[in-house]
Amino acid sequence: MQNNKLNDTVKTEQNEEQAWHALTAEDVLRHLEVQDAGLGDEQVARRIAQYGQNELQEAPRPTFWHMLWDQFNNFVVILLIVASIVSALLGEYIEAGAIMAIVVLNAVLGIVQEQRAEEALAALKKLAAPDAQVLRNGSRQVVPARELVPGDIVFLEAGNYVPADVRLLEAINLRVEEASLTGESLPVQKSAASIMDKDVPIGDRKNTAFMGTLVSYGRGRGVVVGTGMRTQLGLIATMLQTVESEETPLQRRLDELGKTLSIASLILVAIVFIVALINYTNINELFSGPVQYFTDYAEVITEAFIIAISLAIAAVPEGLPAVVTISLALGMREMIRRHALIRKLSSVETLGSATVICSDKTGTLTQNEMTVTRLWVDGQYFGVTGSGYVPEGDFTVDDKPVDVTKYPAALTTLWLGVLNNDAELEITGETDSEETYRIVGDPTEGALLVAAAKAGALPIDVKQAYPRENEVPFDSERKRMITVHEVSEPSPEDISPFYDDKKRDWSVIAIKGAPDMVLDLCTHYQTMDDQSKPMTDEKRQRVLEANDLMTKDALRVLGMAYRIEKEAPGENGKLKAEEVEQDLVFVGLQGMIDPARPEVKSALVEGGNAGIRTVMITGDYPNTARAIAEAIGLLKPGHKVATGADIDKMDVDTLRAEIKETDVFARVSPEHKMKIVDALQANDEVVAMTGDGVNDAPAIKRADIGVAMGITGTDVAKETADMVLTDDNYASIVSAVEQGRIIYSNIRKFVFFLLSSNVAEIMIIFLATLAGLPAPLTAIQLLWLNLVTDGAPALALAMEKGDPGIMMEKPHAKNEPIINRTMGMGIIIQTITQTTAVLTAFGLGLYWHIDQALPVGVNPIVGLIQHDWFGVDVQTAETMAFLTLSLCELFRSYTVRSERASLFSIGVFSNKYMQYAVGLSVFLLILVAAVPFLQPIFNTHWLNLNEWLVVIGLALLPAISEEITKFFLRRKEWQVK
């Protein structure tokens, strides 16, 4: 009974908010019923049965048939399928085959994209450690990590992945790399002490190691308190599975457009069908006997049906889905040049709609390379230029370069940073004739090596001149590290502050650590002219004031001290801290920070001009986040910095209000990031969310567009994201936004181009039917127009480079339809112009033809309206209508390359792809009209000179009207300005 109660308690605590960190180690072991010998086999078996394997559970993926249904469950697609079936039943096999080919192609493309999209959890599972060292039945053994259960005692060593959520019982210099989970940029120092605050954020749970994180230094021992889906990693997996992917703005707009077109086309099809029946028959017969009517007038019904189907084909732009897909694919290629890899086609356009970029700090806004930027020695500040791990830069005083070798105390500070150091600076290769470097070890210690190298002290030379003899490693309680070095003879070119020929073979004791802790051990300080003077209260206060000033600028500050001893301390090789932590000489301070990327500031300005707000979301501390945000201009005057704890105190409405004036969120958890994204979206923002860690994945998936880091990002973040930055740079996001806007602008151009053509086709057939005229265009001609004459130039429009000043415009509204007021007016104007031109060409063709066929004395105009068209050859008129409309589209494809700019200002021939598209389309059009075996299929024949002149003259009218329309649009904008 007691055992069951205990198990229920464990299960409850694992499923709810875990508070193991708030218990003492003894209480944790007691609650989990763990003995000194660890768990026994029977206990392990019972707990595996209760909690399951220590692995992440993957939700079922959609089946192939489910994905196939999603592709066909679309109103426009259903309409096309119906049109194809009806065409086949009427014997129009070419039209039916062409329509079905389009439907199948789009379905295949959609399924391929969807199959690539859901790999996030598979990547998440890779983070789980394969094996674990565990204490069971009194012996230390290695078991598969999936077999761990709550209560197992595990051992952690440098280089190990943590196999489960572990409450530490012992931590010896233990540091864990938690950036992928918490966003903390530096390894976290762990301890076994309990934490009294039950609600402390994950990043501050120093006594807990989390599944999937990496032990970077030291060793430890702990008890498993969470396995599988009950770990923090499992919590993220659960969120990934429950977060629903949002439709992109483009998908919503195209769906709305498709529904509108479909409903309108069905209404028009019904009207035209009825009108055609009335035109071809006696209306009294239609309603007197339906059965007899349909028997007697099967040919009439078929003819009316063909006209209706032709209208349906004209109403739905068959080429639009394919052109949109190909346009987005071309945009993906351009994105790669801008260091952005797009994983989901529809996300390309979403970037252009973005109104907010939620950016991680480390590695995105900053360089993710700790850099010493300031020294303080005996009251003097030195600036350090250069950034990252390349050992190139200057030392400055009052922003003027100085030779730091002339300041012995400054040199001593730098040398101590090299001696008291476990990191390594390595050359990794060359790019553009420059050497590239990396740090192996702690980034903070790496920054000290690089700073010294800028002063000429290469770490390898310094360590050879002063080989290490002994050490006391850093620990979180003492907050300092001690090393002992032998004074050997350095090479002549070295500048060695500790070398004295009289003190050869003496030892240097080097100490670095928290400035206040180091300062308390010092009885002397080193002056700028290299003298050692007794420490005074006044001097001590000046050091602390310098430390406070540097800390307020968000610098991580380390104090340096030393002592020279004749005899190396440490009996029998064992060094005790108290032996050396006395009579030390304080030298100076080194302040470092992960600096902002130099290009970020200008990118933020460009994004601001484009109406895009940037919000920093980081796991780092508020002061550090504020300093970076202020330095790059991200934190606006009067705006706030908030923490995850602040978010916990807000309800949904409060957060929605506060987020409008909060530019920086620090010390946040995955749940906080989700809340931030939700609040922004509730305020009608289109959100781009960046991240690199496992902790970022749920928010990346929830955002309108998720952006992962390609260099530092985990596989989980990359597989969840819509876009991956290949250079981890915020500036690349802004550049990608610009390309996204260009792509959306191009989509608008060919939507306008295709729809204005389709509406004109509808009106041409509709008005001709109402007037009792034969259909000016056949179904196969309409398909040719939609797929070839319109399709090729539409693809060329996708290659436009974008209008000037596109990044000075505000993002288009989230609920703005693709067809806004301006485009609607353009469609109306083009419909009128094209319909007039084509019906004029058709009418002239009929006029010339019927003038020869009518009896003498009958007015041709009356004959056009009253003539019985059955059995009459109208091929010339249909050919003139078909060629006129085709050339209308080809001529005006040049004018729609910009929504406002004149054709002559952007250059008639500036888009070479348009020349190819129009040239190919004209060539194919001539073949259709001239080649004998193609003429019967397309119902065409070759025109005479007069007919060609009429066709070409009328075909120029839409292009001219488009340029006039754009002129008045520009004029209206000038008046507003």
From TrEMBL:
PANTHER family tied to this protein: CATION TRANSPORTING ATPASE, CATION-TRANSPORTING ATPASE PMA1
Xref: Gene3D superfamilies: Calcium-transporting ATPase, cytoplasmic domain N, Calcium-transporting ATPase, cytoplasmic transduction domain A, Calcium-transporting ATPase, transmembrane domain, HAD superfamily/HAD-like
Keyword list, A-Z: ATP-binding, Cell membrane, Magnesium, Membrane, Metal-binding, Nucleotide-binding, Translocase, Transmembrane, Transmembrane helix
Name of protein: Cation-translocating P-type ATPase
GO cellular component: plasma membrane
Species in which this protein is naturally found: Candidatus Desulfolinea nitratireducens
Coiled-coil annotated residue ranges, if any: none
GO molecular function per UniProt: ATP binding; ATP hydrolysis activity; metal ion binding; P-type calcium transporter activity
InterPro entries the record matches: ATPase_P-typ_cation-transptr_C, ATPase_P-typ_cation-transptr_N, ATPase_P-typ_cyto_dom_N, ATPase_P-typ_P_site, ATPase_P-typ_TM_dom_sf, ATPase_P-typ_transduc_dom_A_sf, ATPase_P-type_domA, HAD-like_sf
Transmembrane portions of the chain: 72-90, 96-112, 261-280, 300-330, 750-773, 827-850, 913-936, 948-969
Domain annotation Cation-transporting P-type ATPase N-terminal: ranges: 19-92
